[in-house]
Design goal:
homodimer, about 260 residues, alpha+beta, Arc Repressor Mutant, subunit A, Chorismate lyase, 2 domains, six-stranded antiparallel beta sheet, two-stranded antiparallel sheet, about 25% helix, DNA-binding
DNA sequence: AAGTGGTCTAGACCACTAC
DNA sequence: TAGTGGTCTAGACCACTTT
């Protein structure tokens, strides 16, 4: 089955083996969910040492193509279902009456959704202060959320609001009520005008990987949102960390 | 310097070493650009084998925190400059007269920019046909670009346009002229209405890593854009692949 | 009990960089 | 030339899953 390896050339043995395995994965010859031959078989098939075979497998794990489990073997990773997150999710008219948009959308698609919330206050870091237009050291309300769908974690979100703005309001509670934080802000007279989202991606820290249950080779998408009230005052930040293989963000842009 | 390792516990030695090195990197005790002790020194410091030390370093390379070069040593990766890509880059009024927006923006910031373009025609794949509202097998014009700034590759972009729409126009040329493809389309009567961008991220293929000159542990951001003319007809696709550590996308969203 | 992947060691040779 | 990281091997023990 394996093609011949070039043992004299420049390209490392383990990279050549990785190339051959990758080829079989991307062409579907090794179907998603199927098992690879054991390390022992691959050693024999390629006449290579165990370390060399393991290194080849490690390359494909780092690319997010393979998973391995002790005692079970190495399998081709299956693509998880993808959430499409439209930019209209922030529109006023889409603010769900009953629960937050996250819960409503997911349960509409027939899945169980959970959110774990912790609320606290702290002094604004230099970065948070700058983004909210506060003086460093002013206090902010911090709402941390971990969202799950069907038991699987999908995203982590941390919101920051000027404490002076939200003290004594329902935004300090675990449940911010129908329509969520944004609905409460508007009721208080802070009519929202626009949102700004900055998007990038990177590899997760071990903590993030654990709490999002990320496989190796899975990056995270970072969305840093600022909500501006009419008059251009920033009233909320929301930094979201999501599993890149489980999300697709959709933005509409006018040509004007 | 190194703290004691737990040689009995559950956590693997190489992970404990990785933890200690990571701590030094994130706190800045090991500054960006600085060199780590050699593998030999680390072996002695931690009383571990070379493979174990190398595995610890490998963990941090996969996280995008360290780089290594044969003969030179292991260094803390320095953050590259970040391009901010605003969604207003697509607005009609921002269409630069002289050259494409990419070149104009970069040279305005005092850097040298290059684009390598190849143009061809091919039969639309099932996916491209679906996105462009064509029948599978209809021909499309394919424009592939590789953009560099100061010699460093920043992004790869592939555009697809219905051939029937652009046959015999300047869009088939390497240089599409002032204002680029979108300006030509509008001159031809296809007034643009809106763009849709779908954003996600994943680890690069080896080919992508090579042509974007990506270090290990650096994901790519994928932006799949569809340009719609008035009347909701899709007239162009543009799929962009960019180095995640060199880009930040900025979107403005109305609260309405 | 047998088979799987996970960790760790020791040693060898090589290619590259810096001096 | 000395020192660095890159590759490859061989063998050992362990933790876990499957049968």
């Amino acid at each position: 089955m394996p093609e011949a390896l070039d043992r004299k050339g420049d390209r490392a043995l383990y990279l050549q083996i990785a190339d051959q395995l990758r080829e079989q994965v991307v062409t579907g010859k090794l179907a998603p969910g199927s098992r690879l031959p054991s390390e022992h078989s691959l050693m024999a098939a390629y006449d290579a040492s165990r370390d060399t075979v393991r290194k080849a497998i490690g390359v494909l794990k780092a690319e997010g193509r393979l998973d391995s489990e002790r005692g079970r073997g190495v399998t081709v990773r299956t693509a998880p279902p993808v959430e499409r997150l439209g930019s209209d999710r922030l529109a006023r008219k889409h603010r769900k009456a009953g629960k937050g948009a996250y819960l409503a959308d997911l349960e509409a698609s027939g899945r169980t959704a959970e959110i774990a919330v912790t609320v606290s206050t702290e002094k604004a870091s230099r970065e948070v202060a700058a983004r909210l237009g506060l003086k460093a050291g002013e206090r902010v309300l911090v709402r941390s959320r971990r969202m799950l769908a069907d038991g699987q974690p999908l995203q982590l979100a941390v919101s920051y609001l000027p404490l002076e703005l939200v003290k004594g309001t329902q935004i300090e509670q675990h449940d911010t009520g129908p329509g969520g934080t944004y609905a409460r802000l508007e009721e208080m007279g802070h009519r929202l005008d626009r949102f700004e989202e900055r998007v990038t991606a990177r590899m997760p820290s071990p903590d993030e990987a654990k709490s999002l249950d990320l496989g190796p080779g899975t990056p995270v998408i970072l969305v840093a949102r600022t909500a501006y009230a009419v008059g251009n005052r920033p009233v909320e930040l929301c930094d979201t960390t999501m599993a890149a293989d489980r999300y697709e963000l959709l933005y509409e842009i006018s040509a004007q």
